[in-house]
Amino acid sequence: MSTRNQVFSSDFFDTPYWWKDWRPHDELMSDVPREVDVAIVGAGYAGLSCALELAKQGLLVVVLEADVPGIGASTLSGGQVSGGVNVGKAPSGKKLDSSASEERQRALLTEASVSYDVFESILRENAIECSYVKAGRINAMWTDAHMAAWRKRIVNLNTYARAGAHMLSRDELRAELASDIYTGGVLLERAGQVHPSMMFAGLLAAARGAGVTVCSRAAVKSVTRVGAQYGIETSRGALVSRHVVICTNGYTGAAMPDLQRRVVPVVSHQIATEELPADLQRSLIPKRRGISETRRVVNYYRYSPDGKRLLFGGRARFYNLDRRQSAAILHAQMVERFPQMADVKVAYSWGGTVALTLDFLPHLGRTADGMYYALGCNGSGVVMMTYLGYKVARLIVEGQAPETSAYGTPMVTHPLYAGKPWFMPALGSYYQIRDVIDKRRQHA
């Protein structure tokens, strides 16, 4: 048996750990209606939260899903939630766009703070049971330089994003996290965790309960402006709608070519361990925080809701891997952080596609022909995509312009990018090499 195969449990599954509690499926193959007020493309967090808010305002809404609801990233994420932590920083961990005004930075953080309020209110008002706990989150520092950069961000994060953030020395972090690989950290009190597929199931039920029609296997082939309406061709029939909202994120395809060239799909891989021995359950992350790193190629991890397994994720590679290959890479990264877990096996392995943007910010807006969109979660999908969907709904209902949102700035693209991320293997490898160099310099 190869060393790689020795990391898998005897009952290994190449499916998401979350799906053991709720798995995407066709509950009801709803017919595609002929005419609606709003047609939403994509049945993820953004699409469903948008649909739910519109339906509550009395609009006739359909959500068109190319596969089955929940098959994409919304049920595949790490389930960590926060408001504003990732706003305004590039993959290097440094401040994004140093030319941006302080006012702009404050606006982004303030609205990100609101996004967390909206997220919590949606869970509360719709009685969505998804193991939500506000246990806090630690951003673990890869180098001292990252510590210095985060010290500069703390005041704005606490003032505008209400993050409840404070620095942790190496010794303070060691009391929170049984790993010696980091130089310190930042504890963010206003953060937590959810069970992502149970959250999705609750959101789907709430939308359907409000009267939203959700159509499975209704891939959108084309959208054409016809006077004041849009004609939409799907794989299950045609319809017309007064408004169209695109919420496809990392799955934005050729039917939306202008938007496709403005988002970069990247697969994030994850594993769940077998049930941990009692001493590891108690000691790895004793306060059950969510953990994320400040590396360029980030790893993130947490306990399962029952506290019995470690869920560990990251960009294992920037090209296609099968689930055993990605699991073996993530297992090695996990053991690098926790050598005491060398004998712990992998029980589940999966991956989902997220969307990066070229300015590393989420966006909502309107296309040249008037379609709305909410795209580009940049790894903050649970809260931000839920919020952006809701916000687009409010723009439609209130007749406001996207520019009234801090995230309503135009999505940028590049002349050499047409929607296929040909550059990611090289760029990802470059980022990985830089992370290694940074750590070696730290030790030197």
UniProtKB/TrEMBL annotation:
InterPro entries attached to this UniProt entry: FAD-dep_OxRdtase (IPR006076), FAD/NAD-bd_sf (IPR036188)
Keyword field contains Isomerase: no
Keywords carried by this UniProt record: Oxidoreductase
GO molecular function: oxidoreductase activity
Domain spans labelled FAD dependent oxidoreductase: 37-395
Pfam families, per the entry: DAO (PF01266)
Organism of origin: Paraburkholderia phenoliruptrix
Stated name of the protein: NAD(P)/FAD-dependent oxidoreductase
Lineage, opening ranks: Bacteria, Pseudomonadati, Pseudomonadota, Betaproteobacteria, Burkholderiales
PANTHER family: FAD DEPENDENT OXIDOREDUCTASE DOMAIN-CONTAINING PROTEIN, SARCOSINE DEHYDROGENASE-RELATED
E.C. number(s) listed in UniProt: 1.-.-.-
